[in-house]
Amino acid sequence: MHSTKPFSFCSTPLRIALIAVFLAPSIAVAQTDDEEDGAKVYVNGAITRISDDQFDLDAFTGRLGWNIDDDFGVEAEISLPTGEDNQDSVTFELDRSVAIFATARIEPTDGLEIFARTGLVDSRVNVAIPSQQSTFDVEQRSAAIGAGAKWYFSRNLGIRAGYTYAKSEAIDIGLEWRF
Questions:
Q1: Is-contact 141 159, C-beta < 8 A?
Q2: Most C-beta atoms within 10 A of its C-beta, which of 77, 85, 87, 165?
Q3: What's the chain's average pLDDT?
Q4: Is the pLDDT of residue 37 over 90?
């Protein structure tokens, strides 16, 4: 049986992520070009593999971040499905995953950043069992931790790779643009 609550897509983490997306342009405009510590706002698009004991799902992740100072920041992300996984006559498909994180970072060399992050993830996976004519959603809300690295090959454009654990594992790689 498939049951959902009205407006369940608008969970608290999603609301926070949407607020961050709408506030980003005003944050970017408020920056000055002569800042000594570089860009404060960044966007990232990544290909993500989300895995647990039951499935391996691929997704596209959009991320928006704000570096509050040289060492700390916040970022919000949303992951949307790019495929499904069939395991033992059961089909799994990511509906969506939204998250918000606090970040900490160091820059050991010019252009290379190593980061750690901790936050909250809210995700929903659609599960279908055709042999039983059954479909249902599995919602997960949990704390998350992760780490990764960024390498900027120009002042504004770079590559980001990361790992996050929150009841399931997520590995992502993508491009990042700093404003």
A1: no
A2: 77
A3: 85
A4: no
What is the rounded distance in angstroms from the CA atom of residue 37 to the CA atom of residue 151? 16
Counted residue by residue, the chain has a size of: 179
Q: What are the E-state strand segments in the chain?
A: 41-51, 56-67, 72-81, 84-87, 90-109, 112-129, 134-152, 157-166, 168-178
Residue 133 falls in which region: left (phi positive, over 0), alpha (psi -120 to 50) or beta: left
Note whether 95 and 82 are within 8 A (CB).
no
Q: What is the pLDDT of residue 19?
A: 56
Q: Which two tokens stand for residue 101?
A: 């994180």
User: pTM (2 decimals)?
Assistant: 0.78
**In contact, 82 and 94? CB cutoff 8 Å:** no
Tell me, what's the pLDDT at 42? 97
Q: In this structure, are strands 84-87 and 90-109 parallel, antiparallel, or unpaired?
A: antiparallel
Dist CA 103 CA 119 (whole Å): 9
- Give the integer Cα–Cα distance in Å for 59 and 96: 9
Q: How far is CA 126 from CA 12, 20, 86, 131, in A?
A: 20, 26, 12, 16
151-162 pLDDT per residue, tens:
999 999 999 999
Q: How many Å apart are CA 179 and CA 165, to the nearest integer?
A: 28
